[in-house]
Hints:
The chain is an all-alpha fold. The protein has helices at 7-23, 33-50, 61-65. The protein is built from 3 helices and no strands. It is globular, with a radius of gyration of 14 Å.
Amino acid sequence: xxxxxxxxxxxxxxxxxxxxxxxxxxxxxxxxxxxxxxxxxxxxxxxxxxxxxxxxxxxxxxxxxxxxxxxx
Length: 72
C-alpha cells in the first residue's frame, strides 16, 4: 500500500476500520482478546456476506469479488 498512486488503498481500509470500531468494537464489551477476535471475525463475515453495499449497487462484496472471500 505504499506504492506510487496507491493512496486510495489507505482511504478504503481506513474507512472500513472506522466502521468496525464505531459500529462494533466500541458498542461491545469483550472479556478477552479471543472474544474480540471472534467479534471482529463475525463483523467481517457480516460485512462481506450479509449486507448489501451502496457503492456496489446494493450487492454484497462476496457477490462482486467472488472467490477472493472464499478463504473464510
